[in-house]
Design brief:
The protein is of the alpha/beta class and 545 residues long. Helices cover 25% and strands 24% of the residues. The longest helix is centred in the N-terminal third of the chain and has 20 residues, at 2-21.
Length: 545
Amino acid sequence: MDTYFRSVLMFLYILIFIVQGHCRESGIYTISLTDKEGTPFSMDHPEAFLSSRSLQRRARCHLPVTYDDLPVSQRYIDSLHTLGMKIICRSKWFNTVTAYSRDTLLLDTITRLSFVREIKLVKPDHPVKSKQIKWAEPESPAGNSFFPVQLRMLHGDTLHRMGFTGKGLLISILDAGFYHADILPAFDSLWSHGQIKGTWDFIEQSPQVFDDHPHGMNVLSILAGIVPGQLKGSAPGADYWLLRTEDVYSEYPVEEEYWTAGAEFADSVGSDIIHSSLGYYVFDDPSLSYSYQDMNGRTTTVARAAVMAARRGMVVVVSAGNEGNKDWHYIISPADADSILAVGAVDSLQYPASFTSFGPSSDNRVKPDVSTMGVNILIQGSDGTVVRGNGTSFSSPLISGLTACLWQAFPEMDAQEIIRTVRESSSHYLSPDHRIGYGIPDYLMAYTRLNLIRYFSGHLSPLLVYPNPFTDHLTIVVKANEPASIQILLFDMTGRKVLAQTYANTKQGIRIIPTDMGNMLSAGGYIMQVINGQTRTTVKIVKTK
């Protein structure tokens, strides 16, 4: 009998242990670690885990490498792998490992490890088919417009004509896939000029991103596509990393972990800009979904990751969301993050699109930050034709690209100076609202503002002329070194004087002289001389049309 009762008692202990283990369902879990003990890396030698380009960006922005930048302890990762966990991705910023197991007893064991702080389910083992439809397909054929409204609205065409196309900037795109971006005609120029620097799929752990969803390909076409006579991207001269972080077949918080891994990768390779037309608020398991109160920039994993990226000197540009005409109504994360640009949508007449998500953030910050055209946007279609599509997914890459063009013109500025200037140059900056935020950016005005900042900082000669090239109005900014009149002389390319104007100046300092001299000149190049006392400055200007 003693043997019998001992056997029964042992069976009960095993049964209790199994029941306790099955309190956790199998699936993908994010495992938060207590520390980074055992890492061979040091903040004194960041070149071992960050690229030289990443370190140069931080140095330019006076940003130190911190403990959060150290990679996750490989010792802990190896321990989890040895126990039977399948490692999916990791985050050094949050010191987490995301891993899969169908062994619920193992999951119970994991929680007892000394280096594990907590574990959180981010995707169950048998998810239901997603009911979420995140993006509408392109809707209609496109007409011909080499510099379409979507660029002209922002004066992006002017930046391009000035020679600023994003050259020298590296943009990482976090999206759902880049279907046929390796063969579609809009991207021929990117490939022939070596502007695609690499690809990675964080879901499948593979470099293959060209057989997945077309959404990222559509976004890339707005950024960099070129179809002569039909389409020109907002930053056709920039370089790109194409990163798949979105699984369109289900909607679970694990995608925030993929997004974080993508953002950390973008940082490590030295990206200047992260572009993401992705957002999160509702999941296929309603118990995991967020509330509007969570849209405060501090709660969701993806918003906190966006802020971490911004703190490392990158410009982060995201879509505000397409929930304006749905029950949710508000922005979705990471649009709620601070220190980034969240982008809403307007139509060609600059009215808010019906679908664009409303601000503010739940802690009452202005959101979206800015807005631009997101209705009937010209994009590369999956069939090789240029078509039109709608969404803040398509308004935000206009901002990412032109921000790259602006930064190309002022590489000495840091990310937050660029972001602040874009906001301050927007149509509603003095009276922001909850539909379009600070309004529609004017990138020519932003260029002018930064030129003045550069001028005041002493990086330019005592003369600033903008826009250049110009059509009608030309503004001349003179740093007067002495209280004397200012004389402006204009010569054509043969040396013939075609214009002479004198302006009284009674004090030293900055003098801004707006003119309409474009109405007096024929198209072509001219040499301008500005004389202030003993100082003579010369600049070449170009009159268009």
